[in-house]
Amino acid sequence: MSQKRFFPNLNGVRFIAAFMVLIHHIEQAKHALDMPNIYHWATIQHMGRLGVGLFFVLSGFLITYLLLQEKSRHGQIAAGSFYLRRAFRIWPIYFIVILSSYFIFPRVPLLEYPGAVENVTNHYWERLSFLLLILPNFAFVLYDLPYWCAQAWSIGVEEQFYYLWPWLFKYPKRKWVIVLFFFAVTALVLWAGLYFLEIPPEKKVEKLVTFLGQFRLQVMAFGGLLAWVVFHNKTKITNFLFRRDVQYAVYAFTIAFYLSGVHFFGFMELYALLFGFFIINVSCNPATVIHLEHKWVSYLGRISYGLYLYHVIAVVATINLLASFEIKSVLLHNILIYSLSIAGTILICVLSYEYLEKPLLAYKDKKFGR
To answer: What are the residue boundaries of the Acyltransferase domain, all occurrences included (predicted)?
Structure first.
């Protein structure tokens, strides 16, 4: 396993995940602004969290495979280089969106959104401190986030997965000590945040439950398990998963289950299994029945991180812009909202990717590898 492996179709998976979140937020914004919407549909309500869940499984799969590969090639994990690679990829856009949400967007009338300014001014330093420490999921649960950057909560979960995961590979004999230390620190930070939050005890319990519901490390770990299966060539498992009849059966079940709108305890864990099946097939199965290797899909997948973080800005701007026109047709209004929101998001992302992210990624690859 000395050579790096290319996984096809995964840019397409990234695009699908980002697009699901975008659709969810368009309808969510329309709902918040008392516009005709379909946000009450279970399929729309679940679409956003499922898009994030797909990102989580994919992230766990790729990060674990890279760590396994590095351990195989070099006999160790260079944790410093690992974190520098992640920082070059994640931090620039993250801080652009976070800092703009605090210091720029509240002053732009076109980006006005109900409650967004209050979610900047209330608990100003507490929230900003968590955000600057790249703990947006803590900030989101404890204090809420301005709508322009609320989607950044999931970046916190991914970062915390990165804080834990490399050390389990670097020091496998101490894995339980590492896991206990990680969760002890996480619990301490959350306890401190809840302790100093002046709300009734029952509200603190609600926030604790919300945090645990979003702290999806087990979903990312499942992606990691699939990477282990692929890396170690567990053909008894993959031969079954790669069968065409199994693919058709699982995809049919996934579509039917999603359209049913059913929700229950363990909902995301079941979808993690289905997403993992999808990821391992499109990336590793030569006989996959789904192909996403199209140039435009691949490019949108490469800029999907920007699609995920920037899209809310384009959605809010589009809705506020169209509000200044008298558009009586609901159908035309929705066509314009969707088309302009998507086009605006892509334009922002292309500019960001070509002139900011791409040069930084090229530098990162040169200095620290992929």
So the answer is: 9-353
Between CA 295 and CA 369 the distance in angstroms is 24
Residue 240 lies in a domain: yes
Identity of the amino acid at 270: L
Residues 6+ apart with CB under 8 A from 146: 101, 102, 105, 106, 113, 116, 117, 119, 120
pLDDT in tens, 152-167: 999 999 999 999 999 9
- The parent domain of residue 142 ranges over 10-80+114-291+325-331
Q: What is the DSSP string of 67-99?
A: HHHHHHHHSS--HHHHHHHHHHHHHHHHHHHHH
Q: For residue 182, is it within any domain?
A: yes
Residue 163 lies in a domain: yes
CA triple 101-107-113, angle to 5 deg: 65
Q: Is the Cβ–Cβ distance between 298 and 11 less than 8 Å? A: yes
Number of domains present in the structure of the chain: 1
Phi-psi region of 288 (alpha: psi -120 to 50; beta: other; left: phi over 0): beta
164 falls within a domain: yes
